[in-house]
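Bench log. Compound arrived from synthesis this morning; before running ITC I wanted a structural hypothesis for how NAP sits in the protein. Inputs:
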Amino acid sequence: MKGVHKLAVVGIGKIARDQHLPALAAQSGFELVACASRNASVEGVRNYPDIDALLAAEPALDAVSLCAPPQVRYTQALAALEAGKHVMLEKPPGASVSEVEALHDIARARGCTLFASWHSRAASAVEPARAWLASKEAGAIRSVEVRWREDVRCWHPGQQWIWEPGGLGVFDPGINALSIVTRILPHEVALRAATLTVPSDTSTPIAAELDCIATNGAPVRAVFDWRHGPVEEWDIDIDTDAGRLSMCEGGKRLSIAGKEIDLGREREYAALYEQFHALIETKSSDVDVRPLRLVADAFLTGRRIETEAFGR
Ligand code: NAP
């Protein structure tokens, strides 16, 4: 590690408090100096109502971490990049693919780091799974099945933005599975068909099914459902010539050909901030839009089925 970078967190809500602030408190590469949020504040740092006030008052700031919902990601990221700050984006990196690509261009032009983070890729099962699937030992991949089902009332209580355009609906968690699949498979994945189940009173789906194909011809099928419970299911099964790789609990557990693999301690957000720090130090960016592109393709090609009102 080299420099210590002055950082501000923008959008103090569930994920900022659950993960970002604790990870930053234990992180030596960043000093949290300020926050910006319309209704919330954080003790021990300077607080501002929005990102424009933050940027105007904090010229010595090096970086910002954006934790508000995706519909405001582009405007906030643009303001930060225009001010010459390095930017870390919560997932999804934007409400559209074109927004994220535009931000990447601006970051390059400004010489700033843009990190489109995918926290599920930092789950402890992901890199061992990727290494095994790329090895000769695994042989060919035959099929991939993703089951990402949870109770929306438990995981997103009172969140209205998830039901609004750009909020992604069930793809808000589902994109985590897609971020893992696109990271661990040694092949690209193309969407062939999708079904989106949309309540009559929401703009975004409560359930979705995706039929994709990997470039080696293996089928990749994903089922996302927010009407599931009480125990959530965040599982990926990959059948290969050498047996099944199963990733469970969102990447916290891994078994390969029937053998449970011993994984290290879970440290998703600590790892994300280490990665952001390394990107700044090496003057580089990490912007992989493939998970968001699969979601965008599902909205583009998916058959829409209306279902009963959610009652939000
Ligand atoms: P949240 O608590 O509903 O929102 C975060 C904060 O953003 C809010 O408290 C609000 O703070 C601010 N905000 C909301 N709407 C805004 C707007 N229109 N303009 C400016 N600020 C606004 O949501 P969250 O669960 O933290 O999720 C935020 C992001 O993190 C999402 O992209 C989500 O996918 C991702 N994420 C969430 C989780 C999770 O478990 N919740 C896990 C991983 C990633 P103020 O009212 O004070 O401005």
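What the model suggests: The first strand starts at residue 5 and ends at 10. The chain has a mean pLDDT of 97.
ITC booked for Thursday regardless.
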